[in-house]
Design a protein that fits this description.
Elements (H helix, E strand, L loop, with lengths): L1 H27 L2 H10 E6 L6 E2 L5 E13 L9 H8 L3 H14 L5 E7 L1 H8 L6 E10 L6 H4 L2 E3 L2 H6 L8 E3 L2 H5 L1 H5 L3 E7 L5 E4 L15 E3 L3 H11 L4 E7 L4 E8 L12 H10 L8 H4 L9 H11 L13 E2 L5 E2 L9 H7 L2 H12 L7 H14 L21 H7 L23 H12 L3 E3 L4 E4 L12 E3 L7 H13 L16 E7 L7 E8 L6 E7 L9 H14 L5 H8 L6 H4 L3
Parallel strand pairs: 2-10
Antiparallel strand pairs: 1-8, 2-3, 3-4, 3-5, 6-7, 8-9, 10-16, 11-12, 11-20, 13-14, 15-17, 18-19, 19-20
Length: about 600
């Protein structure tokens, strides 16, 4: 009897526990209820339009246009005219069947993207017909009204698995800025995705909005970006660079705003939009002259004679040279293996050395800096020299608003110690005196050097965006002055030499003269072990209160005055006067095509 009673009590206790658990699940704990809802609710992402991009005059550089993804729910597809739908899309029957099979393999009940970025015209024709199981999803794609600045603006592409792993904001099928402004300002441009929650039955069929849209969120459009680019100047720069490999960078010295950033060869940015984007991208990627490579910030070149201005400034600051000191030039520097130079009068002082681009003069100055007795050794002198050069923005990123900006190369003490087993002196590294040797600089860094000289000793970090929608200012780093280690009083002789380079007989940059404008320039012919020398030129104008500083670098263009100087001069004239008087020179440069066997043989 006791055993029977015990069994009854045990059963009652277990039943009580079960009832309490059921009560908890059904009334107290709502997790199972929520789980059930999650199985019947479908969250559809609402994609915002990306922010549009304007130039410094408020005109469109990048717009949005409507596009549509063709979606399919395989289970709902009824018999339809396959050839007719293929004709509307513009694909062959085999391609269509392949995509439809892929959608069926993914899910017969859930929607899949069949074809992306179809134009508005397709939508109008599609809606005139009845294709059961197919529908359109609204998107926006980029449009470029003026077909320019491809490398500057960058392009948008679909996220990869690696991007998704790094940033949980993105999901498969999302787009992201891949280069240029699109990449640098991705967070501002992308906006914020919304969501629309819909009820779906056990078969995956849509049954309408959940709770009348109470829990939906609206997509927030991306912010508009206002660029610093001058559209006329950018267009002219790209026209003058055609048939050449190189770049142009122009900066407003008083603000650091980039007026032009042109890289050649370039591409029509519309090529990387729409259904043909993938094919076009691979064609551009395989082009031997690398049109997707933004040389303005990603290429590293020897600066050549433009770099002499820095050595002159360091020499003045260190007190190893004055404006009165003269050095001889016997067609070059004749000590040791020597450095050749072109014919000009001799001896020359600092101003005349800049004017005539005398190699010998700057060899003397450079050795006086490195071998300065107060430092005790050439190695210690080199370390001091290197600190000066770094203060001009070389050997490091300028921290501009380009994510793929290159450091360039400023050789270190450790590098030379390894290369020469600690046995080297000023003669070993003499090529640095004329901007050769191991030096590597980007065109952006060269334009910034010119802005520093124009400002007599300081610069603002170069940047390509001047305003973001909804913000009163851009990043504070772009408003800060950065001073070099050379006092402002030492810049006047260099400025005078650059002015004479353009405006006085014997100056190497006479071709850069602009009527009624005080142009200060410096030519450079950078030696190239792989072919013809590179042509480079930097300049600013006017001499006082300068409005533009520019650097032009043309690979294999030979002398600085041959190609680079005319291009810089024409761009400055356009910017300063809003017109160009030397029409023949424009045509001459446009018709100039340079052969590049080192690129083209790779085809």
């Amino acid at each position: 009897m006791n055993r029977y009673r015990t069994l009854q009590i045990t059963v009652l206790v277990l039943l009580g526990i079960l009832l309490i658990k059921l009560f908890s699940i059904q009334v107290v704990d709502d997790s199972y209820r929520r789980y059930a809802f999650n199985n019947v609710l479908q969250r559809n992402v609402q994609y915002p339009p990306r922010g549009e991009v304007y130039d410094r005059r408020g005109e469109y550089l990048v717009k949005n246009k409507e596009a549509y993804d063709l979606m399919v729910i395989p289970l709902e597809v009824k018999q339809f005219d396959t050839l007719e739908l293929c004709r509307l899309i513009g694909v062959d029957k085999e391609r269509f069947k392949k995509e439809l099979r892929r959608a069926r393999n993914y899910s017969r009940r859930r929607p899949s993207v069949l074809f992306k970025q179809l134009p508005k015209e397709f939508k109008l024709r599609f809606e005139e017909r009845n294709f059961k199981g197919f529908y359109l999803q609204y998107r926006t794609v980029r449009s470029y009204p003026r077909k320019m600045a491809g490398n500057l603006l960058g392009y948008v592409g679909e996220v990869t698995d690696r991007i998704i792993e790094r940033n949980p904001y993105y999901r498969m099928g999302d787009n992201i800025g891949m280069s240029g402004i699109e990449q640098a300002y991705e967070k501002e441009l992308r906006g914020k995705k919304g969501v629309k929650i819909e009820m779906v039955d056990v078969h995956g069929i849509n049954r309408g909005s959940y709770a009348d849209g109470l829990y939906d969120s609206v997509a927030i459009p991306g912010k508009a970006i206002h660029c610093t680019i001058d559209p006329k100047l950018q267009m002219l720069g790209e026209e003058l660079l055609r048939g050449k490999v190189g770049s142009v960078v122009a900066i407003e010295p008083s603000t650091g705003e980039i007026l032009v950033m042109a890289s050649s060869p370039t591409y029509d940015p519309d090529q990387l939009v729409g259904r043909d984007r993938g094919n076009n991208y691979m064609k551009l990627l395989n082009e031997s002259r690398r049109p997707l490579f933004n040389r303005a910030v990603m290429a590293s070149y020897p600066p050549g004679s433009t770099f002499k201005t820095i050595n002159g400034l360091i020499g003045l600051q260190e007190g190893v040279v004055t404006t009165q000191n003269r050095y001889p030039c016997h067609m070059g520097y004749t000590i040791g293996r020597g450095v050749k130079c072109h014919s000009h009068w001799s001896p020359v002082n600092l101003v005349e050395a800049v004017q005539t681009s005398c190699n010998a003069y700057f060899c003397y100055v450079f050795r006086d800096i490195i071998d300065n007795k107060k430092y005790g050794s050439a190695k210690a002198g080199f370390a001091v020299w290197r600190d000066y050069v770094e203060s001009f923005g070389f050997g490091r990123k300028l921290n501009s608003d380009f994510t793929n900006e290159l450091n360039g190369n400023l050789p270190s003490l450790e590098f030379y110690n390894r290369a020469y087993n600690n046995r080297w002196n000023s003669m070993t590294i003499l090529s640095l005196s004329i901007g050769q040797g191991e030096l590597g600089v980007t065109p952006l860094q060269m334009a910034n050097l010119c802005a520093i000289i124009a400002n007599r000793g300081y610069y603002y970090i170069p940047h390509v965006v001047r305003a973001v929608e909804g913000s009163d200012s851009i990043d504070s780093r772009f408003y800060e002055r950065h001073y070099t280690k050379v006092d402002s009083k030492h810049y006047d002789p260099i400025v005078e030499g650059m002015w004479r380079c353009v405006h006085r007989d014997g100056g190497t940059g006479a071709i850069a003269r602009i009527p009624d404008q005080d142009v200060c320039g410096k030519t450079g012919t950078a030696q190239n072990p792989h072919g013809a020398d590179h042509s480079t030129f930097m300049a600013f104008a006017p001499k006082d209160n300068p409005k533009i500083a520019i650097s032009v670098y043309i690979e294999n263009g030979r002398f600085g005055a041959t190609v680079a100087a005319p291009i810089a001069s024409l761009l400055m004239e356009q910017y300063l006067t809003d017109t160009i008087t030397r029409v023949d020179l424009v045509q001459h440069i446009k018709n100039m095509n340079i052969n590049y066997p080192n690129y083209d043989r790779k085809k």
